[in-house]
Specification:
Layout (H helix, E strand, L loop, with lengths): L14 H17 L1 E5 L5 H9 L15 E6 L22 E10 L5 E6 H6 L3 H9 L1 E5 L8 E5 L1 E4 L2 E4 L11 H12 L2 E4 L4 E6 L3 E4 L10 E9 L1
Antiparallel strand pairs: 1-10, 2-12, 3-10, 3-12, 4-9, 4-11, 5-6, 7-8
């Protein structure tokens, strides 16, 4: 698996942007994800940091580069399986940035990440071949009537590999997938995700997810998300 190296000159960035990039670039290259407490930053600063890693993809109704995700007792509180974002796209985003703007009421304010590629490498050669060879109908997780992508779970692009791992987008009635997904679940890494925390990961090879542990008074969290190709 190739590791993307970046040779952009950090001196061309503002001081606070360069400081953030210094904190997250090396861990991202070494381990596939990075997390850092960078405090309160503007949307412009967040966007500038994101563009260091590639082209930011505008999505959503407003075609925005930064998507706001709100989680509360009444909004966005459904259980979400470990997944990599937009795995139902023909080519999913290479990188994902999540930045916690606000959070209250969580007993454990954290995010979970897990190494999809590392889990895949723990399978037998026969299991890997079974996962690699099969083409599947891959659905949109929220709108199964919007059409399907006929694709593979394991994909190769320009010498790199990307995976599609989201159990509610495919028909997963087969042993190899279930074993692979369980390995991903069994190797969760818990990272702190308090307000002012930035989390960036290789969306092609890492999964993420949340566990909603609310307290009696309820909970809420606001996250900025950026998708990078």
């Amino acid at each position: 698996m190739q590791v993307t190296t970046l040779s952009k000159d950090l001196s061309t960035f503002a001081a606070d942007e360069a400081e953030i990039l210094n904190l997250i670039s090396e861990p991202l290259a070494k381990q596939g994800y990075a997390v850092a407490n960078i405090g309160d930053i503007s949307a412009d600063t967040l966007l500038s940091v994101a563009y260091y890693f590639g082209e930011v993809i505008p999505i959503g109704r407003g075609n925005d580069h930064i998507t706001e995700i709100r989680t509360s007792a009444s909004v966005g509180s459904k259980n979400v399986p470990l997944h990599n974002d937009k795995s139902y796209w023909r080519i999913p985003p290479k990188y994902l940035i999540l930045y916690c703007r606000e959070s209250s009421g969580f007993e454990n304010n954290h995010m979970h990440v897990s190494d999809i590629h590392g889990a895949f490498e723990k399978l037998t050669e026969e299991e890997k071949l079974n996962l690699t060879d099969r083409s599947l109908d891959i659905f949109h997780p929220s709108n199964r009537s919007s059409g399907t992508l006929v694709g593979k779970l394991v994909n190769y692009l320009n010498g790199d590999v990307f995976y599609r791992l989201r159990s509610d987008t495919i028909t997963k009635d087969w042993q190899e997938f279930n074993k692979w997904e369980q390995l991903v679940i069994d190797n969760l890494i818990e990272v702190p995700f308090n307000p002012g925390t930035i989390l960036i990961m290789d969306n092609w090879t890492f999964a993420h997810g949340r566990r909603l542990n609310s307290v009696e008074q309820g909970f809420s969290r606001t996250i900025n998300r950026l998708l990078i190709m």
